[in-house]
Amino acid sequence: MTGAQRAGEADLRKYIYEIPDFPRKGIVFKDVTPLLLNPDATRRAVNQLAGYASRLEVDYVVSAEARGFILGGAVAAQIGAGFIPARKPGKLPRETTSVEYVLEYGIDALEVHRDALAGGARVLVHDDLLATGGTARALCDLVEKAGAQVQGCAFIIELAFLNGRERLAPYDVHSLITYEDE
Q1: Is the bond into 170 cis (omega within 30 degrees of 0)?
Q2: Which residues does the annotation mark as catalytic?
């Protein structure tokens, strides 16, 4: 990480609030809403994510419902790419491609319109947070199942101590803010 990258991370980190014991005891929730409340911080986050995405020359940004949507569409617009929302089952009006994934408390699923990705399109997978990597890995699987190629995965926050990056191997992973310890 360069000095400029460390300075940018430190600057954005001050907008991430830590909420102990949410959503349950023992978890320290990383709240991105203070970053979103500050237009300059939001703009810097979008610019940094877009800089990464531009180097990948992606055709689409795919983001998970719901927090991934917040910056995913802005990044896509800034780099001139399309935006594809990955939604919970039953939320999209046309035929879909779906993937199920395991959470610590059950099974979930994400869907995209079946005609959204095909023909080797180059895709950036984006979400607000990389923790264990389950949601991001499901997005990667969904992109590939639809016939496209994952060029990289981008996050605002990475909880490195949960080893989600390992679950995303061999994909390139980029995070704006990394927490090494709980």
Answers
A1: yes
A2: 67, 104
